[in-house]
User: Which sequence fits this backbone?
């Protein structure tokens, strides 16, 4: 369901929301089957479809309940950025503190970008804990600027390690977060997926592989726009090519502000 006024306020202030048991057991089982197939193909180094082409992972992109939540925090017409999925078995290493807001270069937070983290087997203190630092999404910082901290505790951090199967966590993409590795999980792997969406109104860096346009086309061909209702998700004009944009500015020197059109002394 759409977010309540209180939930929306909490998200914008704290940078995240938790939805326990967001998916049914049947939905979880179907999604886990796709992730098992994906994991096997990766282990054998076999070619496999784009994630948007898997029978259950693909429709996850435009899942109606997901769409209601995303529209509640960023308004209509938003874009789909990417989908990831992985099975994290016992011994999976952690991921250092970072943020995932896409911007080249990082200068502001004028528009909202979100990630939805899906824990199909829930979280139980094994394999890895989700860490986040509430309200940190307000700070403009490069994506990897915090990696030297590894997964060390930070003042005010929130440790999320007890969620039922099928839970989802909505995070502002600029929120600092990490995965702290934990022992255990030999008989209970962690099935994880995340999907990301961008607010309409500006052009965002594309997903960071050359095939990003093809992925958007394939999603449309697979009917993930749900009869045109969510065709805005896959419109290319939400994006510019990330690598081309990076090449355009990386050789600039000094403050970028004085190189913008309309600069006056």
Assistant:
């Amino acid at each position: 369901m759409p977010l309540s006024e209180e939930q929306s306020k909490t998200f914008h202030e704290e940078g995240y929301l938790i939805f326990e048991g967001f998916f049914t057991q049947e939905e979880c089982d179907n999604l886990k089957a796709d992730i098992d197939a994906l994991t096997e193909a990766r282990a054998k180094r076999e070619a496999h479809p784009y994630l948007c082409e898997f029978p259950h992972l693909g429709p996850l992109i435009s899942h109606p309940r997901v769409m209601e939540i995303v529209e509640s925090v960023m308004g209509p017409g938003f874009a789909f950025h990417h989908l990831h999925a992985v099975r994290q078995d016992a011994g999976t290493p952690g991921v250092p503190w970072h943020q995932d807001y896409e911007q080249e270069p990082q200068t502001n937070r004028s528009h909202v970008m979100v990630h939805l983290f899906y824990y199909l087997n829930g979280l139980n203190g094994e394999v890895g804990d989700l860490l986040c630092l509430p309200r940190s999404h307000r700070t403009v910082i490069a994506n990897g600027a915090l990696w030297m901290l590894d997964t060390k505790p930070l003042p005010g951090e929130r440790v999320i390690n007890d969620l039922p199967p099928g839970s989802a966590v909505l995070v502002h993409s600029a929120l600092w977060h990490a995965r702290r590795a934990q022992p255990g999980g030999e008989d209970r792997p962690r099935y994880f997926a995340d999907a990301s969406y961008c607010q309409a109104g500006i052009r965002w860096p594309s997903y960071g592989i050359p095939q990003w346009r093809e992925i958007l086309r394939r999603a449309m061909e697979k009917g993930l726009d749900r009869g045109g209702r969510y065709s805005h998700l896959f419109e290319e004009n939400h994006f510019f090519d990330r690598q081309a944009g990076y090449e355009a500015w990386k050789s600039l020197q000094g403050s970028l502000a004085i190189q913008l059109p309309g600069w006056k002394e």
Notes: The radius of gyration is 19 Å. The first helix runs from residue 5 to 14. Helices lie at 5-14, 25-43, 57-60, 64-74, 212-221, 242-249. The chain has six helices and eleven strands.
